[in-house]
Amino acid sequence: MTHKCKVLVVGGGVMGASVAWHLTQAGAAVTLIDQGSGNVPSATAASFGWVRASASTPSDDTNAFALRLHALEEYTRLKQTLGALPVTVRGALSWGETTDETAALIAEHLAAGSRVESLSAAQVRQKEPSLAAVPDLAMWAPDDFALEPVDLARCFIQAAQANGATVLSGTVQRVLSAGGRVNGIEVQGQVIEANKVVLANAYGALALAASAGVALPIQQQPAVLLRLDADRNRVRHLLCAQDLELRPGKERGLMSALDYPLEGEAGLQRLAEQTCQSIAQLLQLPSVPRILSIEVGQRPMTSNKQPLCGPIGTVEGLFAVVAHPGVILAPLLGSLCTQAVLAA
Ligand SMILES: Cc1cc2nc3c(=O)[nH]c(=O)nc-3n(C[C@H](O)[C@H](O)[C@H](O)COP(=O)(O)OP(=O)(O)OC[C@H]3O[C@@H](n4cnc5c(N)ncnc54)[C@H](O)[C@@H]3O)c2cc1C
């Protein structure tokens, strides 16, 4: 197997798929390679898919907040160029433990330029009639939406292929370089030549960058995606009720994103059961819903929380894109990475 390509993208999750498509849109010859999910779901496959500025507040991290606002604008551009996006639900309702907490959240978002509104209990009841108890005050974010991250990655990849990209399956073992320049990758003992390589394979980028002598400041952090067998029509929007994140699934059931339990894997079943009980109470379900799946995804994170997007180390032609939250940021970083690759 000997392929010649100008740019080789490693990783077909939402980030690599976005990079590959943006590169082909800019006229580059692209090969994308992914190892396939096997037993370990990619972060994209286990993702909740909430696209929102309200993932953080300005006081949490001013730069991250500004970046997310910018990233949301990129979704508008994407819709115009890529076509209809795989959106499952639009609009998000959030509230805290107390009315004061919610009021402070709304005030902070309004001051920072987020398009959010205050909703009274009656307005919340209208939006979500199944709620057992409604808060006196909630934050309504009409521009938030949830999409299916795997479908989005598929849309990017299909559109990249339509632009001429080649898509391969295989595990990349190392980056090859000579004289300070990238000249390819090794995939299961075989060489694929390339003069530019983009590592968009999440935490896997650590080992591949190291194979070219570059240390990347990245880690992975687990999070849990719970799928429940409950009537998906019980929830009409995205809900962030205190700490519980909930939305309807694509075709059936409900989905909830959870922090990984402190006890580790041993605590997963209990966490899932407790969440099912909380959801049954929240939505006045006739019985506690059955668990369809508990998926643990490893979120790729950078040490300084800023996205890694562009050339890395001193090896010419080597780039990386690793960032959190990746679904929100994928369109923006796909575009920025493309500019960096083409400028080099
Ligand atoms: C439970 C949960 C909820 C989340 N909720 C949200 C949310 O609401 N909003 C949001 O924006 N983000 C969310 N995230 C984070 C988001 O899902 C990730 O940031 C994003 O999916 C990362 O995409 P990625 O393409 O960088 O990585 P991945 O999706 O992990 O893709 C990396 C790809 O690289 C491939 N690969 C790895 N190593 C190699 C190799 N050596 N050779 C070939 N291929 C390789 C893998 O097969 C994989 O397909 C959530 C994550 C989790 C787990």
From TrEMBL:
Keywords: Oxidoreductase. The keyword Transmembrane helix does not apply. The keyword DNA-binding does not apply. Pfam families: DAO. One of its GO terms (molecular function) is oxidoreductase activity. Its EC number is 1.-.-.-. This is FAD-dependent oxidoreductase. It comes from Alcaligenes nematophilus. The lineage of its organism: Bacteria, Pseudomonadati, Pseudomonadota, Betaproteobacteria, Burkholderiales.
